[in-house]
Sequence to fold (719 residues):
Amino acid sequence: MNLILFTFIVLLGFTSYYFGRRKAYTIQSTKKRLTALPQFYGYYLAIWCAIPAFIIFSLWAIFEPTIVKLLVLSDYSNQGYLDDELNLIYEKTKSLSRGQFTGEITPFIEASAEKYLSLRSIAQSSKAVIVLSIIIASVAYAYKRISSNSRTREPVEKFLNAVLFTASLAAILTTVGIVFSLIFQTIDFFKVIPLFDFVFGTHWYPAKAFVRDSSEALDPTMYSDTFGAVPIFAGTFFIALIAMCVAIPIGLMSGIYLAEYASSKVRQYAKPLIEILAGIPTVVYGFFAALTVGPFLKELGTSMGLEVSAESALAAGGVMGIMIIPFISSLSDDVITSVPQSLRDGSYAMGATKSETIKRVIFPAALPGIVGSILLGVSRAIGETMIVVMASGLAANLTFNPLESTSTITAQIVVILIGDQAFGDPKTQAAFALGMSLFLVTLCLNIVALRVVKKYREKYE
Amino acid sequence: MRKNGVKMIKIKAKDVDVFYGKKQALYNIGLDIEENQVTALIGPSGCGKSTFLRCLNRMNDVIDICRVKGEILINDFNINDKSCDVVRLREKIGMVFQKPNPFPKTVYENISYGPTIHGMAQSKQEMDEIVETSLKKAALWEEVKDRLHEPGTGLSGGQQQRLCIARAISVRPEVILMDEPCSALDPIATAQIEELIDELKKEHTIIIVTHSMAQAARVSQNTGFFHLGHLIEHGSTDKIFKNPDNTKTQDYITGRFG
Fold:
């Protein structure tokens, strides 16, 4: 029903576009000069069709359920039901009307369900009638109003402006919403666990918190020495460090090769190939690390007489580094390519060789951009989850031995939120606290990266 | 410069052809450049004068699709020969570009760049001397001596171009190539550069590509006129401007085309 109505409105929109344009052409044929191109007249009418439709649809979506509910439940008023019971009755009515009700069907509820259905159909048809009549009225009004010198271009441009603004507003509001949901849960978490214990505690064992019987009251002492985040922060930065040790040299050198040495033919094929690395899902990297690299390192280590855990920080970090190569390579390639050719010419004309030119002129000029790309790579490394979960183990060991297993913030969030969890439980809230700290770290990194890149942009202006 | 009444030839180009891919840009250019004189190359846009200039320090090597044929003798040595070391060549043949292109480094580092890569200074003191002399020769010392360690890109356009000239002369080249060095500058900065060119020719051979006929007449002793990849006429500036042999030259100089 809604779909048909919607299609109809869209068709109506196209029709009004057509009529608007036709009217403009008619005016034009009488040798009058239009104030805007004919299509603007069309768009203008289409907007007069779209805005009322949108307003009525949203009003309906907001008020229809409430009104229907009020009407259905009016039969039960003055019978002494509590609000909760009324809600239950209403839910039963709704599921019965959908034919999904499995409980005992009382005549009361059956009557309500019928009433509900009839109210819904009335609402639907009245919506269709109201929407269509208002649209037709508004389009007709606008159609009459347009003449050779009416302003159609400005409203159309303003409308576009508003649409684009709404889109960016939606993105921003979502971000703000996510941050707020993090903040409130995090605050709740820190009401139970002291901030000091979280930041400086060296023992992370959230499973302990889950052992408690839910009927017992919360006992803060029980959580001491449970949520110390130092091991997982250390693990996060350690694995990110290993990843960057792989990604920075390889990424940077391949970026320099692509930008300066590769012939245009090689570049044409090599660049997309490297960028394919960025398109591989991280879960694939994850099992590559867990099933190929991890066991390989273990065997290699054993043959050299080293004790290597099958899930090692080295395997996870190394594979993560490979994943980050294309980001650094591609970004630094772009940055280096955008260094003006005149600087290269200037250096070559002084008798500098290619490598001298790169080392002394191009690299310093591109450095801010390269630093920016590296920082973006770091924030990816810190936020990466799948590889670590699969390849580096879940036990939060405080270690800086790359051959042992360790864990990261992201992996711990996964561990906490997999399986059963209770809201309001410190264990669940710990995930929010971790998420919040992760968010703060990557936010800072991104801000620094953006600043550096911006500084770079000003350089050649 | 004449020695015993004989012209000293610094650069001798013979049968130079240049191709960009399949398109031929220069045909059979033969031109002698006199030592310690200013030679101006004039002609309408796209006539090949800049291409020819870039042949002289093999800057065309940078362009993948560009091929150069023929002989260019500098001090009787063919620079298109395989045995020619481009790094040494460019040390001897400096170049100044159309748009000032100082490196995004300090004024000091801009000048010390060439001497450093060619290992010309053994100590900090020697380098300081090179920087000071180069800047003085480029008539920029007085203006920048207090801001040697500020970015070269912060100077004005004319100062930047003089900085580039100072950079070029820091390695004491024998020849300086200038590719429309004043086209991005205002008249005052242009006048300063022209004065400088006159000064520089005492120690260097200068070849300047210019769009401004007036500039060619003011600064040069010899002029070559290019048209559609051909060197139409060359000779002393006086002769080319007052009494050219070729009607095309005459037309171009009097502003009938170009």
